[in-house]
Design goal:
By secondary structure, this protein is of the alpha/beta class. It is 18% helix and 35% strand. Strand 6 and strand 7 form a beta hairpin. The longest helix has 12 residues, at 18-29. The radius of gyration is 14 Å and the shape is globular. The chain starts with 9 loop residues before the first strand and ends with a strand.
Length: 125
């Protein structure tokens, strides 16, 4: 791994219902998710820009992908956590851990999406 790179460059959020998850994340994050298929898997790609900072990723529906509260936790950047949590709760998700200060690094929160995944938010200072 190059010493100047962050270690994560891609993430996958497992879903049972791609259409439902796509609607949820588009309305909560205010982004357009692009549907595609790769082999037997259905995917919904989050917006990405090659060479930009941060990781790109996808919603993914397929064999071997099961939504969960266990395992890795993906943090999604948002401008403000509280309005994002309001949108999450009003669109079928639920807050698992409300906004929490993490010192000089800003704030975090955890939520459950419409598929049953535990996902996190990060608000930079």
């Amino acid at each position: 791994m190059p010493s100047h790179a962050n270690p994560v460059n891609w993430f996958e959020i497992p879903v049972n219902d791609l259409a439902r998850a796509k609607t949820f994340y588009e309305s909560v994050l205010g982004v357009e998710i692009t549907e595609t298929e790769m082999g037997p898997n259905k995917m919904g790609w989050f917006p990405m820009e090659m060479g930009a900072a941060g990781a790109a990723g996808t919603l993914i529906q397929g064999e071997g992908y099961a939504p969960s509260h266990d395992g890795s936790l993906v943090y999604i950047n948002v401008d403000k956590i509280d309005p994002a949590l309001e949108a999450i709760n009003s669109r079928g998700g639920k807050t698992l851990m409300p906004r929490l200060g993490i010192g000089e690094h800003g704030f975090i929160a955890h939520f459950e999406d419409t598929e049953g995944n535990r996902v996190a938010l990060h608000e930079a200072p």
